């Protein structure tokens, strides 16, 4: 015997589900409108934390805070732009020049101006690279050392300090895995060139050994 389906009960149940779905949707929309000012305030706070971390070159932390800001207020185009900026500047500090100007960070702008000046020779370039390494400004030190290698391709210390600056950046900066791997590769290439120029120079061998020990 075929059991008769109660169509009325089936329709009532479908309408019941539909009604509560509509009520739930309205509730979500209402909650979104009510909490919009609060979400915007929180998003702004996270964004400013990201700005602070980016000033300090803490790239991973900056990206995380910008993502929090974007999650709470998805129309925040500035946060999207800052995420891209943090990624790019983690391997190219020059990308932060406009950011520094916006934030009026004179100390960083002064270093950029110093980097932009053409040194008298490769020795002066490496002297600047050393100074920047001592100050913990490893990305700028890379730029100064690169200038030294361009001025003299056979200057051992230019390649050595290019390797050291990349090694320090890899170890000391807060980076994404891709950025860290790039610094590792650049450090190895520079140190290998320094070693080829002077195979017996102990500092070069020591830094290569240190690099190879890092997992």
How is this structure best described in words?
- The structure is a single chain.
- α2 runs antiparallel to α3, α6 runs parallel beside α8 and α9 packs antiparallel against α10.
- This protein has 215 residues and is mainly α.
- It is built from 10 helices and no strands.
- Residues 1-5 and 27-32 have low confidence and may be disordered.
- The protein is elongated, with a radius of gyration of 28 Å.
- The protein has a domain at 120-213: Serine Threonine Protein Phosphatase 5, Tetratricopeptide repeat (Alpha Horseshoe).
- 80% of the residues lie in helices and 0% in strands.
Give the SSE map:
Layout: H1 7-55, H2 59-72, H3 77-89, H4 97-103, H5 106-116, H6 122-134, H7 138-151, H8 156-172, H9 177-197, H10 202-213
Helix pairs in contact: 1-2, 2-3, 6-7, 6-8, 7-8, 8-9, 8-10, 9-10
Descriptive keywords:
215 residues; mainly alpha; Serine Threonine Protein Phosphatase 5, Tetratricopeptide repeat; 80% helix; elongated; disordered N terminus
CATH superfamily descriptor of the domain at 120-213: Tetratricopeptide repeat domain
Provide a count of the helices. 10
Report the top-level CATH class of the domain at 120-213.
Answer: Mainly Alpha
β-strand amount: under 5%
| Shape descriptor | elongated
- The gyration radius over C-alpha positions equals 28 Å
CATH topology of the domain at 120-213: Serine Threonine Protein Phosphatase 5, Tetratricopeptide repeat
N-to-C CA distance = 73 Å
Main sheet makeup: none
Question: Can you give the mean pLDDT?
Answer: 87
What is the total tally of β strands?
A: 0
Order of helices and strands: HHHHHHHHHH
Low-confidence stretches: 1-5, 27-32
Structural class call reads mainly alpha
Per CATH, which architecture of the domain at 120-213? Alpha Horseshoe
Percent range of helical residues:
over 70%
